[in-house]
Specification:
Strand order of the largest sheet: 1-9-5-3-2
Shape: globular
Radius of gyration: 17 Å
Number of helices: 3
Strand content: 25-35%
Distance between the termini: 5 Å
Largest sheet: 5 strands, antiparallel
Mean pLDDT: 89
Structural class: alpha+beta
Length: 214
């Protein structure tokens, strides 16, 4: 059980200007190549759409407690992305807060090295006086032209190339929809979005949501 403790809006002018520039570039680039930004398929009531022209939406991201402040200050660092991620070495986002909450963990506890050995971190947080506070980020994300993966793409360093002969470049992100095979005993249970920040700032962390676990 969780309780929302606080919600803080991030006001980072430097990151916002980079993000706004990327939004304009993405729109011009895809329109110039004849690629629109079709709405996510299938429709997801959990995702709030901001701007359909570039598929700008709100998505959730979970991280270790102190990392949230670092992301709010510096943005998402592509170099910290997990190289063996199931759908590539990008930054992962979720349509639902419950999925992102699996990654919202106490300092020193990670998904791959669970100190508490629990799907949802149950560790106490030394930096918060032993409490079980967690942080989630609600982010603006530019999805642009989406590649819908049909299975795991471990090691993917960039979004895939479009299947055309005119050198039209790469997709803007990868989406793993519910139900696709993922190499495990069960199919994909939550929609996940993978975004690479190599070409600019495609993600803007807009809110820090702090919750308390009971």
């Amino acid at each position: 059980r969780t309780q929302v403790v606080s919600v803080h809006r991030i006001e980072n002018l430097r990151l916002w200007r980079l993000y706004a520039a990327m939004r304009s570039e993405l729109s011009a680039r895809n329109q110039g190549r004849g690629f629109g930004s079709s709405p996510l398929t299938p429709h997801d009531a959990n995702i709030r759409v901001i701007d359909t022209s570039v598929n700008e939406v709100y998505l959730w991201h979970g991280c270790q407690y102190k990392a949230a402040a670092d992301i709010a200050d510096k943005g998402f660092d592509q170099l910290r992305a997990k190289s063996r991620g199931l759908y590539g070495a990008g930054t992962y986002f979720a349509a639902q807060a419950c999925k992102a909450s699996q990654y919202a963990r106490a300092d020193g506890c990670t998904v791959n090295r669970k100190r508490c050995r629990s799907l949802y971190c149950t560790c106490t947080n030394p930096s918060e006086g032993g409490s079980r506070r967690r942080r989630l980020l609600l982010c603006r994300a530019l999805l642009g032209d989406v590649c819908y993966t049909t299975g795991p793409t471990v090691g993917l360093a960039l979004p895939p190339e479009r299947c055309t002969d005119d050198g039209s470049g790469r997709y803007d992100c990868v989406v793993a929809n519910l139900g696709i095979p993922n190499g495990r005993a069960w199919p994909q249970l939550h929609r996940e979005v993978v975004i690479w920040n190599h070409g600019g700032v495609q993600i803007y962390p807009e809110y820090v949501v702090e919750v308390l676990l009971f």
